[in-house]
Amino acid sequence: MPDVAIAAPNEAAADAGEQVARAGGNSVDAALAAALVTMVNEVGLVSLSSGGFITVQPADGGPPQTVDGWMDMPGRGRALGGGTWDITTDYGGGVDITVGPGSVATHGSVAAFEEAHRRWGSVPWREIVQPAIDIARRGFRLSTASRYYLGHAHLEVFGWDEQSHAAIHDADGTITTGSIVVPDLAASLDLIAADGSAALHTGELARRISDDVIRRGGILGAEDLADYRPVVRPSLLSTVGEWTFGTNPPPSVGGVCVAAMLRLLDGRPRGEWDAADVDHLVRVQRAVLGHRLDVFDSTDDLVRDAGAFLALIDRDHLAVLESGSTVHVSATDSDGGACAVTVSCGYGSGMIAEGTGIWLNNCLGEQELNPRGLHGLPPGTRLLSNMAPTVGHHVDGSALAIGSPGADRITTAIVQALAGFVNGGLGLQQAIDHRRVHLHRAGRSDEVIKTETDLSMYYGGVSATLRRPGPSTGPGSGELMVAAADPRRDGAVRLVHRPTPASADLV
């Protein structure tokens, strides 16, 4: 049983990670258990109808790997279009969202979790799922992040579907402050514990989800769910000082942006962030996020164009500079393993699939991630993603896991926290707490430099864990395991130490 450090979006998720770690689980087991709980209690941000990525630093020191469980375009054999409508909300500074059954993409996060568990997990799959079952059965209260989002979208997004409306509203139509028990959700999780991800792709849950979506005018069919496969890829690597970081490779755009910004920061800040460092950071964001808007969001070959951009950065830094909703869990363990998990269901389609208790995603309706339009990709194609779960390995054997929610602020939040920690010499929590800058609409005529004054969840919600090697482990070595959560959200951390021989004798 290794020591495990866990950073999660809420207390219940952190408790789940701790429970699994105390049962003998490693960082992968703990992170997956915590993330599954968020699929129950982070309403509006993530659900079982989600997509995500898992980046793992294997404990044996091998190269990091990323499991791609992101969304596919559905619609095999169907006429595309219809089943949607657009709304505008002032969430996140103003965003246009497409909702309805036609906005539901092919989910993949649970399939990716199962693949990661098969490769690197150490406790039975049912133990990974059990904490989420328990939360769904006994009920939960909305987190601060959920309540904040629902405050903007509870009627427009979650008010049109009868089950969805009833689950989060009191009798007077206000967002509930009480405990929420979503009918059928615990039973759905029981099926996933027993049958694995097959329940969501070829089993009873898959049938209920696809039947309900098609009946209501959407395009997610049984074939789309059955044909889905998670993909395991070598992580995209970047070296910063004595650290090697692995992050999400194409077809996600998030990891490419993180890698590019880390390289362009060129060792800044060298100590506390100063005005010159912030100016440089803005130039870096302008170069990378501007290139994303110009090239990556419309390319027909992201692997090719991402490789060319990173090669240009490596050749000539200065030449480059002059030219919705997610949750994240991080975990590391004393064996040297690290796991970073980021998952999302978009802004939510607004509907619960009949007989499942599962809120369905609207990832086809995230307009900023679908530059070719609502149904503009061939069925089976992976959608774009900002996600960038990242792990790091130091020459001294240290292991780090880090990531963030926050739509297009994911990459800028991660980079600023990493730069403060690796380059600036800040402690992990101090680096995460530091105020951030985000360049909105980079390189456009309406570009805005947004500088954080008071801590705001708009600027992300970074969580990170760190393991430093040392001469001993157990309760007396707490300084070797670090977990840090972002004060911008309801983050929670846990440090789980294996018993020492002396303490084990006392049990």
SSE layout and pairings?
Elements lengths: L3 E5 L2 H12 L4 H15 L9 E7 L7 E5 L15 E5 L5 E5 L9 H12 L4 H14 L5 H10 L8 H7 L16 H11 L2 H4 L2 H12 L6 H6 L3 E4 L1 E5 L2 E5 L6 H12 L9 H20 L7 H14 L1 H6 L4 E7 L4 E7 L7 E2 L4 E2 L30 E5 L4 E5 L6 H13 L5 H6 L3 E4 L7 E4 L11 E5 L13 E5 L6 E5 L4 H6 L1
Antiparallel strand pairs: 1-9, 1-19, 2-3, 2-10, 3-6, 4-5, 7-8, 8-13, 9-10, 11-12, 13-14, 14-17, 15-16, 17-18
Could you please describe the fold and organization of this structure?
This protein folds into two domains: 25-231 and 345-369, no CATH class; 233-327 and 387-501, Glutamine Phosphoribosylpyrophosphate, subunit 1, domain 1 (4-Layer Sandwich). The radius of gyration is 21 Å and the shape is globular. The longest helix has 20 residues, at 275-294. By secondary structure, the chain is an alpha+beta fold. It starts with a strand and ends with a helix. A seven-stranded antiparallel sheet has the order 6-3-2-10-9-1-19, with helices on one face. Strands 7-8-13-14-17-18 form a six-stranded antiparallel sheet. The chain contains 17 helices and 19 strands.
Q: Main beta sheet, described?
A: 7 strands, antiparallel
Strand segment count: 19
Estimated structural class: alpha+beta
Tell me which oligomeric state these chains represent: single chain
Number of helix segments?
Answer: 17
Q: Catalogue the unreliable spans.
A: 472-479, 502-507
What is the percent of helical residues?
25-40%
Question: Per DSSP, what share of the residues sits in E-state strands of 2 or more residues?
Answer: 15-25%
Strand order within the widest beta sheet: 6-3-2-10-9-1-19
